[in-house]
Amino acid sequence: MDIEELVKIMARLRGAGGCPWDREQTRESLKPFIIEEAYEVLEAIDEGDPVAIREELGDLLFQIVFQSRLSQERGEFDLSDVIAGIKNKMTLRHPHVFGDAQCKTSGEVVIKWDEIKKSEGKQRDSILEGVPKTLPALLRAKKIQDRAAKVGFDWERTADALEKLDEEVAEFRNAVENKKEHEIEDELGDILFMVVNISRFIGVNPEEALRKTISKFISRFRHIEMAAAEKGQKLADMPLAEMDALWDEAKKTKS
Fold it and tell me: Is 103 part of a structural domain of the chain?
């Protein structure tokens, strides 16, 4: 099946006698599905399952086709315009591949990319503009920090960044111990922002790191649940010390 057949399926779903649910959808109503499908692609990639990756990419592609169809109905653009637009953009922004420019490293590619964006009139008043507010907070923080680092606003040494983290933790501890409720949220935010800064500085994606840790937690906690079930125990009745022991057991077997 090629993309045109998928476009025809979408047209039928939206057309007279099509699917009542699909016909009711709007750009706004579909926004949650775009996000959901994108994260399901990430989950499939994390699991390393090529069949699931293929399926989830298809679901995400369908959302692109759906949004394009809605715009076509409004007389704005269709899927062919979307494809043409990204084709032209990728060709123009890779002159080292499709033209005569020379870029020997990925760093040089990034510099060239930014230069081309400026020449396209996409330079903003602030280098921090253009980072979507709807991004997950950790990812948005990283992108904001990446932008600032491009002009030299960055740590010189990992040790300095870690020292700043210790300072933020101390300030948070002080706010908690002294019950300064108006400061606790701010100080906790500073810690999280600093952790993102450190992760970026050492080359770790904080969003990826946290997602993997969440998955690890789920796997280990599931081990505790299964152990309780095998013993005929309710988890809520299991002593914390016993759960801790099972957690340590899970760490050894499910690391």
Answer: yes
